[in-house]
Amino acid sequence: MSDRLLLPFVLLLSLVLPARADFVPVRAFSGSAEEAARFSPRGLSIGYGGLLYVADGGNDRVVVFDTAGAVVSTVGFAGSAGGRFLDPTDVAAAEGLHLYVLDAGNERVQLFDRYGQFLEVLLAREAGTIGTPLGLEADSFGRLYVTDAEADRVRVFRSFTGQEEFSFGGYGTEPGRFRGPADAAVDRSRRIYVADGGNHRVQVFDPLGGFLRSIGGAEGPARLSGPTGVAVDREGRVFVADAGNARVVVFDGAGNFAGEIREGAGGKPLVSPRGVAVDGAGLLYVSDSAGGFVHLFRYGAAP
Fold first, then answer.
1. Count of CB atoms situated within 10 Å of the CB of 302
2. 151, 122, 158, 241: which is closest to 193 by C-alpha?
3. What average pLDDT does range 215-222 have in this prediction?
4. Going by C-beta distance under 8 Å and a sequence separation of 6 or more, which residues neighbour residue 256?
5. Half-sphere exposure of 190 (CA within 13 A, CB side)
């Protein structure tokens, strides 16, 4: 085929195919040296001043890192009293003022100020305000989203009072239903993204819980296996912790497969990615609970 005939074909492909996604590992970090062997990072969240809050289930605490991966402080320790944790699995930093911690072993959500001072138990199974929480997210509109594995629903609360506004979902495989919803994320348009672990997909909902679409193919590179975490950046790209396939998958704003990550800095393979978070500068954080590291990546689309 001549170059003149080939050119329109190449241009057509460039319009149809998504831009190749480049993922540049920056660093991998963990807790202090004496506790690193037990460091088991689960959910994570970016808070005030770019600080990274990580639920460390292995040490029953939340670890706060700066942008260089150094430990700034820790919140809590093992126990069942207020301000203590048993196997914390997720965190949400919101409004630059508060930190919400999903204290899975005690089946509750605790509220702290941004300095890590305990304020109150906001939601608890014991009080009848929550079932079995798995994932946690807070938006900038005063809402707190909790994925409830017992009811297979996403429950939406007022973040300041803990008053439930509404819930959606229910057990099933149909669109809009869940089997073990593991995590939730909210984009700038208040659309809600849910990692539907048992159905091996991510589902997208409007701000009132109305089903919009699913993400994740039945076969090929977009196929998910037990997704555990989800995040959305300012451009609408969706990052999924695809634990069953030991990778993080990136989808574009239309839900098309755009790339994957299987290893971090120094060639460290992802073993069991659990949580994902992305900041406004395009930095991607991935927690690897079995590998014992938080991985930092710089993300960009190659021309």
1. 8
2. 241
3. 90
4. 18, 222
5. 11
Supply the pTM of this predicted model: 0.90
**Residue among 91, 120, 117, 118 at smallest CA distance from 104:** 91
77 pLDDT band, cuts 50/70/90, is very high
Say if residues 63 and 31 touch (Cβ distance below 8 Å).
yes
Average pLDDT for the chain? 88
For residue 98, list its beta bridge partners.
94, 113
* pLDDT confidence of residue 22: 78
Residue 5 DSSP code: H
How far apart are alpha carbons 211 and 79 in whole angstroms?
39
Q: Over the Cα atoms of the chain, what is R_g?
A: 19
Mean pLDDT of 60-77: 92
* Tens digit of each residue's pLDDT (9 = 90 or more) over 246-259: 999 999 999 999 99
Name the β-bridge partners of 204.
193, 213
CA-based torsion, 178, 61, 144, 228: positive or negative = negative
Distance CA 71, CA 59 (A): 14
**Amino acid in the structure at residue 118:** F
